[in-house]
Amino acid sequence: MTTMELGTIDARTIDPEALTRAYDAYQHDAFDGYFPDSEGVGMLAANFVNAAVSAIAAHVGDGEATAFVNEDTAAQDVDTMRSSLKADSFRTPLLSIAHATVKSWLATQFKDASDPLRAAIDAYADDVFAAAPRDEREASLNAAQYIQEGPELAAIVNEISETNMEHLSGKDMQSGAFLVYDGAKYGTATDDPDMVLFE
User: Fold this and answer.
1) Radius of gyration of the chain (CA)
2) Is the peptide bond prior to 36 cis by the omega test (within 30 degrees of 0)?
3) Under 8 Å CB-to-CB from 26, ≥6 apart: which residues?
4) Nearest to 90 by CA among 180, 24, 177
């Protein structure tokens, strides 16, 4: 990670538990029926929110106008979070799904894209949810998008190979599915011929 400028964040205004509850509520509403999932991806994302906000709070001085987390400290934070969350035990596409849900929540929770707390959580998310080093086979499945149940999803299900479909949701029926794809090469999931659908 690079050095992070945290901006005007007062540690007294940061509540990891409250923000984790806010994430949990968003996850339930936005992906109704999908989480909790069979692989613990939803729990991974919620635990990340708690860990990231706690780390940020620990680095921000009360009332300080500007605070920095230097490159080495930020990298140590990421290593600590990846270890405590057991991130390397997750397949890369599952990390991509968790990453997508956190980024989606951030956009809803913090309307201002320049909000320093949002930017800091987002920066941690990019590194904590990076591909597991051991997962070379699925390393390119680095982005995810959620599609709600409807004609578009039905068309994808009808066209996609069964070998590119997996079951992840903890329920038999849900309101949508995640499409995981190579975000470095393709703008959308449906452009990637190797896209995997997690229903």
Assistant:
1) 17
2) yes
3) 104, 105, 108, 109
4) 180
Residue 143 forms beta bridges with which residues? 181
Q: What angle do CA 39, 165, 143 make, to 5 degrees?
A: 70
Q: How far apart (Å, rounded) are the C-alpha atoms in residues 155 and 153? A: 5
Q: Is the pLDDT of residue 93 over 80?
A: yes
Q: Measured between alpha carbons, how far is 198 from 133 in angstroms, rounded to an integer?
A: 22
Nearest CA among 133, 136, 141 for reference residue 98:
141
User: 25-69: per-residue pLDDT in tens?
Assistant: 999 999 977 888 889 999 999 999 999 999 988 877 655 555 666
Tokens read off for 13: 């205004």
How many angstroms separate the Cα of 17 from the Cα of each of 51, 57, 129, 165?
A: 10, 12, 21, 35
Residues 104-129: tens digit of each pLDDT: 999 999 988 888 889 889 999 999 99
Q: Which two tokens stand for residue 117?
A: 């707390």
Report the residue count for the chain. Answer: 199
Alpha-helical (H) ranges within 31-141 are 41-59, 71-84, 92-109, 116-128
